[in-house]
Amino acid sequence: MGEKILVVEDNELNLKLFCDLLRAHGYAAEPVRDGREAVERARDFVPDLIVMDIQMPHISGLELIEQMKADQELKRTPIMAVTAYAAKGDEERIRDAGAEGYVSKPISVIRFVEAVRALLAMPRAEEPESSDAEGAANPVEDSRPPAEPEGEQPPPRLI
Ligand code: MN
Predict the structure, then answer these.
(1) Which CATH superfamily is 4-143 part of?
(2) Distance (Å, whole) CA 113 – CA 141
(3) How far is the CA of 52 from the centre of ligand 1 (A)?
């Protein structure tokens, strides 16, 4: 079975489209229709990636991204935001909330799958106490920008 992807999307058709598309590419897709269940479902499913719709009733995707990035268990799981509007400032708000990737609707199937692939291929932000041996085995390590002067090193991003 392929990598696990949690898909949070209130629109039934989009939810089915995303899940079908991901499954067709070998991923194990898990649908979440109600954003209020997203955090708990993410803890249970332990996904390798979360696809997050931004415009949802009850709780916005931005709020969910912020919650997940503040959660010790979930903060290292990459999040790909999906938004209906490519309005100015949207991408910045999504990035500020902590999402690692972003695609806008209408979704290009190719771009969607490419973005998923790219995010899954990215090295995870490491625990501060992570061993040197692990880092040395990862060739992508060398291409990272220098660490921030203070605090944890920020996770890699597509946006
Ligand atoms: Mn929506």
Answers:
(1) Response regulator (3.40.50.2300)
(2) 24
(3) 9
pLDDT digits (tens, 9 = 90+) for 57-97: 999 999 999 999 999 999 999 999 999 876 778 888 999 99
Centre of ligand 1 from the C-alpha of residue 100, in Å: 19
- Residue pair 118/158 in contact (Cβ under 8 Å)? The answer is yes
3-state secondary structure of 145: coil
Ligand 1 centroid, distance to 127 Cα (angstroms): 33
Q: Global pTM?
A: 0.80
Token digits for 153? 């090193």
Q: Give me the half-sphere count of Cα atoms (radius 13 Å) on the Cβ side of residue 27.
A: 23
Domain boundaries, the chain: 4-143
State in Å: Cα 10 to ligand 1 middle. 5
